[in-house]
Amino acid sequence: MDESDVGPAPEAVASRAKDRSPWNWLLFVPIVVPLLTPLFNRETPRLFGFPAFYWLQFAFILLGVGTTTLVYQMTKKRG
Amino acid sequence: MWRDHLTEIIIFTALFLFVSAMGFVAARWRAPKDMAHLDEWGLGGRNFGGWITWFLLGGDLYTAYTFVAVPALLFGAGAAGFFAVPYTVIIYPMVFLVLVRLWSVSHRHGFVTPADFVRHRFGSPTLALVIAITGIVATMPYIALQLVGIEAVLKTMGLTGEGALARHLPIIVAFAILAAYTYQSGLRAPALIAFVKDTLIYIVILAAVIYIPYKLGGWGAIFDAADAKFSASPAPNDGVLLNQNNQLQYITLALGSALALFLYPHSLTSVLASKNRDVIKRNMSALPAYSFLLGLIALLGFMAIAAGVTPLPGAKPGTVDNNTVVPLLFDQQFPGWFTGIAFAAIGIGALVPAAIMSIAAANLFTRNIYKEYLRRDATPAQEANVSKITSLLVKVGAVACIVFLDPQFSIDLQLIGGVIILQTLPAVALGLYTRWFHRGALIAGWAAGMGLGMWMLYQIPNPAAKRAHFGGSAFPLEKFGFDTPRTVYVGLVAVLVNLLVAAVLTLALRAAKVPEGVDGTTPADYFADETDPRVGAEPREQSGAAVQPAPQV
């Protein structure tokens, strides 16, 4: 822990390169879709008695989980 | 009368005592060599793995108040209250990359609070003080609101008497116990209790969403009952769907709330307590399990409509307390023993976030006020001690808020809290990506956003509660002169103005060659992981020499 640690450590710089990835752009999908209310502000079709407004927003949770999992797996440091 | 609820009270009390014992024992859980350090007391040793972080963050973000207030919103207004679901969906992809940067730079420099980061990044103790005070002020009413959650349960069990003291005695006792074990065990206490809390919540809610619709004739019948209620009500903006006028509000509220959530000091406390970047990234995929739960909980509001629940009277004559609908629904539908478990889930659900919030507020005071302004040479042991004592004071303050003020005041303050914590977005969240903003401009932007936000909140009436000001966070656009009945979330407008002011003034201050302070971080700091070394044991002292010569803003 001496003063020379202040500069960018080589391993940190290497991990920086791995932090950037085109996969990250996918994260915008589950951010934008749940905010487009005209897309899901409707009564039909109902699913198990749930109006579309409700079950579609539950489905967006799965969209969010799917996307973050995919991005995590694709950008994970290997080795 | 409380005698009718004896089974519930016994089970509630037993579970409450059980987790209290856990809270005290937690001090020895994953025991550190030396507890007298803020990293140990305030961040649980910065060493929590995936599961602990999942329970801790889940217990922290999805609070008892959420469990009580969101269904109350659906009960009262319908679809507009469901914003909590998109809000907790978009939050995780939004912060997926941001939080790991914050974790890395905090790990490398030993930051405990968001204000620690800002101080170092922008070389401005003043800006850090502004961020710290904003955080403390936004957190205090949030803690008080957790008490509102417990109180809704106690009220339903008939445990609250008349008179100011009798009404609040059970809460004072509960909070005294909470304060004692938080003092003793620090962040380890809520981390351990969160396991019990979340397990109870999952059991209760899964049982509720299977059993109650079965008793009420299915989900279709529940939504139809809600639709019938809102069709009959004279209010213009309720219904099981959104209408033309409240969609913008729905979108801006979901977005604004999501931006605010991880600016709250208590969220960051739980994030910084995790042991590496991977733990955070994996949690961003796993935490939406709680959003699913929250969505189901929200629908309890509609179940209460279908079951014909009438809320208990509020504190003021002639008003009703919609926060009691979920406890009443449980009381009406479940057998006594299971209602006891459900109430314990809500009650314990209040303790976990209350503990984390008080720790976060105490850390802010210790690091950014005490150490910065009162005692610059404080040792880690002294820091931990000050934090412990501050956490007690914070809880006394929260109880005083509830006992001496109208609970409505806490709800108003929490509403304001969301708006004001958003004003730290440019310095904290954008600061993680860019050093472009000038520290003076950030302070000015903060002031502009705060001023506008307060003015807008002041302008909002609430006809239902017969209040002229601070009646909600939906600002009618016609007050800006637009010819429309639409409303917008105050926080988002305020933070946009904040950003605009910060950007314009940055250009102006730079043109005027006002000193910008020294950036104490390097680009590589934002990608450091577990194995990367700290920059000195005491980063503050080390870089102090570099920061001093620059004039302070």
UniProtKB/TrEMBL annotation, chain A:
Entry annotated with the keyword Membrane: yes
Transmembrane domains' residue ranges: 23-40, 52-72
Record InterPro entries: DUF3311
Pfam family, one: DUF3311
Lineage: superkingdom: Bacteria
Keywords: Membrane, Transmembrane, Transmembrane helix
Name of protein: Uncharacterized protein
From TrEMBL, chain B:
Pfam family, one: SSF
Segments for region (Disordered): 522-553
UniProt keyword list: Membrane, Transmembrane, Transmembrane helix, Transport
Gene Ontology MF annotations: transmembrane transporter activity
Any one cellular-component term (Gene Ontology): plasma membrane
InterPro entries for this protein: Na/Glc_symporter_sf (IPR038377), Na/solute_symporter (IPR001734), Sodium:Solute_Symporter (IPR050277)
Biased composition (Basic and acidic residues): 531-541
Family of the protein in this entry: Belongs to the sodium:solute symporter (SSF) (TC 2.A.21) family.
The protein, known as: Solute:Na+ symporter, SSS family
Organism lineage string: Bacteria, Bacillati, Actinomycetota, Actinomycetes, Micromonosporales
